[in-house]
Amino acid sequence: MIERYTLSPMKELWSENEKFKRWLEVEIAVVEAYEKLGIAPAGTSQEIKKKAIVNVDRIKEIEKVVDHDVIAFIKSITENMGEEANYFHLGLTSSDVIDTALGLTLKKAVQLIIEALEKLIDSLRKLAIEHKYTPIVGRTHGVHAEPTSFGLKVLSWYSEALRNHRRLKNALNEVAVMKISGAVGNYANISPEVEKIVSEILGLEIEKVSTQIVPRDRIAYFLNVLSLVAAGIERIALEIRLLQRTEVLELQEPFKKGQRGSSAMPHKKNPILCERLCGMARLLRSYSQAAMENIALWHERDISHSSVERVVLPDATNLIYYMLVKADYLIQNLVVNIERMKRNFMVSYNLVFSQRVMLKLIEKGLSREQAYLLVQKNALRSWEEEVDFKSILENDPEILDVVNKDELSELFDIGYYLRNVDKIYERFGL
């Protein structure tokens, strides 16, 4: 994690102090389970709570000697304890604590991510409604295609965000799991009943079959979902970047008072936020690949996944949280240049209406081949001579033999292309 791209409260969630607090929470929950089962004397967990102090510096000091973070944690926590220390970490392996605490961490992280996504979804919904009938040139291959609605473009982003919301809900179920099953997952030194009680205390699901760890396909699934969420944001950001180009200038990301775009060129307003979001999406995809490679481990477990997760899990969750917060800011403050959208129809001389002209000629009795070639001939002339397509058609005898000028004018009505927009919106209850 780097400070530049970390935001509260996600940043604090991954702090060393919070990590050790969650380890302690797991250890105490196990002792509480022991008390309920008559293994530990009543009041043992309360005594531990009174005496346990999370001291990160002390843990690190001990770790320099023992070279094992969980052992260092246990020694630090139990330094000032009496008999109750005998029940601390009793029958557990390190991963019982680490993976169960990780389940707590990821549960909270996903909840924060979902909350941030819900804010973005609401902003996209509002923008889609506001521009439901705002005409814009649709583009395929980067080239003018046919008229469409800017709101419809935003509605597509909204729809994808809703799908990602469902995926995150599923991912929450995948990662909010735990295991208290011992060194190889067979409950040799601890009862499944302890695990059941701990799961109820912590609000986590039990991994039905664990090894020394919770299987890592769960985390791989989660990071792949984060990659999809990031790709959805990247799709939005890339579109805004393309539409912010000087030659287009239909959209612009917000530019704050006092902001500067270039150290050399004072006139510049660069889409730096959108570019940053696109770059971050690349990072998220790389993290999902690393998580996929963590699934296959030696036998009941090796630790080749551990170093990877210490990096990718804090980074990935902080990055996606940052991306969602910034994407919401971007959408809420997006500059929409409606007049430029209208004017850009003339950049291609109204050629975006060519298909409707062709269909009208077919309706009037021409074959598709005849109609296509006749329209294409005039379209190419319009482009080469930089003359309005409609005016060229109005002066072509072959066209006027089939349709009159009033009929031609009707074919250049943008409203025709937006006539089914309401039906698409109705699919979302909008």
Structural commentary:
By secondary structure, the protein is mainly alpha-helical. The longest helix is centred in the N-terminal third of the chain and has 37 residues. It is built from 18 helices and six strands. The strands form three sheets. The protein has a two-stranded antiparallel ribbon. Helix 2 crosses helix 6. About 40% of the residues are buried.
Question: Which descriptors would you attach to this protein?
Answer:
elongated; Fumarase C, Chain B, domain 1; Ribonucleotide Reductase Protein R1, domain 1; mainly alpha; two-stranded antiparallel ribbon; two-stranded parallel ribbon; 61% helix
Task: Lay out the secondary structure.
Elements: H1 10-13, H2 16-36, H3 44-51, H4 56-66, H5 69-78, H6 94-130, E1 135-140, E2 143-149, H7 150-175, E3 177-178, H8 192-202, E4 205-206, H9 217-243, E5 251-252, H10 272-293, H11 304-332, E6 335-336, H12 338-343, H13 354-363, H14 368-385, H15 389-393, H16 397-400, H17 405-410, H18 421-426
Parallel strand pairs: 3-4
Antiparallel strand pairs: 1-2, 5-6
Please tell me what the overall shape is: elongated
CATH architecture level-2 label of the largest domain = Up-down Bundle
Describe the strand arrangement of the main beta sheet, using strand numbers. 1-2
User: CATH top level of the largest domain?
Assistant: Mainly Alpha
Distance between the termini: 39 Å
Low-confidence stretches: none
- Quickly count the helices: 18
Number of separate domains: 3
The total beta strand count reads 6
Helix content range of the residues, please? 55-70%
Average pLDDT: 96
- Sequence of secondary-structure elements: HHHHHHEEHEHEHEHHEHHHHHHH
Residue fraction in strands: under 5%
Structural class: mainly alpha
> Could you name the CATH homologous superfamily of the largest domain?
Fumarase/aspartase (Central domain)
CATH-assigned fold name of the largest domain: Fumarase C, Chain A, domain 2
Whole-angstrom Rg: 30 Å
Q: Largest sheet, if any?
A: 2 strands, antiparallel
